[in-house]
């Protein structure tokens, strides 16, 4: 329901994630999701999205925010902003005229190649300067293709905007009016991170890329501790001594793990590995929080990492029982992909490994390309 999605967005506010996994992995992992639900929240003005940085292969990182919280939780990108003349013309159009459609931006940019305007617009999107009131153009940017114009004459702009230029575009700065008191902002950030992670450590804050790092919110955490809203302690081994947790999070940590396996996109904010917690060592490869990669945890412990594309897998346990628990998540992942063939596990031919043998016994087929799942 929209109410459930609203609560999910409230918890995810400010988390940076690849746009390509937002609607395919992150939101479906938390609810029965349909794109119309997020469209509804954006149409009502309750939720906004902001680009964070470009990624390769028609992708980029973004964050979601509740509209009334963005002044407190969002910070401009520290990277150098795009600075070509066409970028300045687009900024001027949006600053002077407010929210604009692509045709207006195209004319303001000089009316040359529409693709040039589109490219410059998306430069500003991934720099966090411009956003749209719908996700339609983002979906088109991720999954659609825009035909390049090569004629030397001035191209004629089609009557309809290109799909990745549709909707109304506006400056993110228009959502942030007036100066924000640093203490108020620090408290909002601390509350948001506690809501999302339960336990705050120096590494968690560093992974969020917050300006000023842990020291920026440490005074707020101490004040929350004095007020009894958080506890300070050594709750998670290996995460340092300065750990602050909500009472509910501490209670959950003390409960025995259910030991259930969990399949997550590696870049999902709920995956602590590679962010709040370092990746375990592997002699044959290094995992990453890249779009298209997955982790499988068992009882919270990392068991398997599946590289983007599924061809290579790394394991982080020798416990055969733990590896057996990863089989159903691997089958679920295979069912979701049109092509899923694991060529190597821990650097060896997949079928010759312990996990590979378990996969074959559970229905995977050893083909000349690797282990494939046949439904």
Summarize the structure.
The chain is α+β, with helices and mostly antiparallel strands. It has helices at residues 2-12, 19-26, 35-43, 70-73, 85-97, 102-108, 114-126, 136-143, 182-197, 202-208, 213-226, 247-254, 320-325, 327-336, 354-361; strands spanning 17-18, 47-55, 59-66, 130-132, 169-171, 199-200, 231-233, 243-245, 261-265, 294-298, 301-306, 312-315, 341-342, 344-345, 348-349, 364-366, 371-373.
Q: Which class of secondary structure composition applies to the elements?
A: alpha+beta
Instruction: Give the N-to-C terminal Cα separation.
Output: 31 Å
Largest sheet: 6 strands, mixed
DSSP strand tally: 17
| Radius of gyration, in angstroms, nearest whole number | 23 Å
Question: How many alpha or pi helices?
Answer: 15
Side-by-side strand order of the widest sheet: 9-10-11-12-14-15
- Runs with pLDDT <50, length 5+? 145-153
In what range is the share of β-strand residues? 15-25%
The average pLDDT value, as a whole number, equals 90
Q: How would you name the oligomeric state of the polypeptide chains in this document? A: single chain
């Amino acid at each position: 329901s929209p109410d459930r999605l609203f609560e999910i967005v409230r918890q995810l506010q400010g988390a940076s994630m690849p746009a390509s996994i937002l609607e395919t992995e992150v939101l479906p992992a938390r609810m029965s999701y349909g794109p119309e639900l997020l469209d509804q929240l954006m149409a009502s003005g309750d939720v906004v999205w902001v680009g964070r940085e470009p990624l390769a292969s028609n992708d980029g990182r973004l964050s979601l925010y509740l509209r009334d919280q963005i002044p407190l939780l969002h910070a401009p990108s520290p990277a150098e902003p795009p600075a070509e003349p066409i970028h300045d013309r687009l900024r001027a159009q949006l600053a002077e005229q407010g929210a604009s459609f692509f045709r207006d931006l195209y004319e303001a940019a000089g009316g040359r190649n529409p693709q040039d305007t589109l490219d410059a617009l998306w430069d500003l999107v991934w720099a966090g300067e411009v956003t749209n009131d719908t996700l339609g153009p983002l979906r088109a940017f991720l999954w659609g293709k825009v035909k390049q114009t090569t004629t030397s004459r001035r191209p004629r702009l089609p009557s309809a905007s290109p799909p990745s230029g549709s909707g109304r575009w506006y400056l993110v700065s228009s959502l942030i009016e007036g100066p924000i008191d640093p203490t108020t902002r620090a408290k909002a950030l601390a509350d948001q991170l506690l809501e999302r992670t339960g336990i705050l450590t120096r590494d968690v804050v560093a992974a969020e890329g917050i300006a000023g790092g842990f020291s920026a919110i440490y005074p707020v955490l101490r004040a929350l501790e004095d007020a009894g809203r958080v506890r300070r302690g050594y709750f998670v081994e290996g995460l340092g001594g300065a750990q602050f947790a909500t009472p509910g999070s501490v209670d959950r940590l003390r409960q025995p793990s259910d030991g259930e396996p969990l399949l997550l996109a590696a870049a999902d904010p709920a995956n602590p590995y590679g962010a709040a917690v370092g990746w375990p060592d592997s002699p044959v490869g290094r995992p990453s929080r890249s779009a298209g990669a997955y982790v499988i945890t068992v009882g919270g412990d990392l068991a398997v990492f599946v590289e983007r594309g599924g061809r290579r897998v790394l394991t982080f346990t020798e416990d055969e029982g733990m590896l057996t628990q990863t089989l159903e998540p691997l089958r679920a992942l295979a069912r979701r992909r049109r092509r899923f063939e694991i060529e190597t596990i821990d650097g060896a031919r997949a079928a010759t490994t312990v996990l590979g043998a378990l996969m074959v016994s559970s229905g995977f087929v050893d083909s000349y390309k690797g282990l494939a799942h046949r439904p």
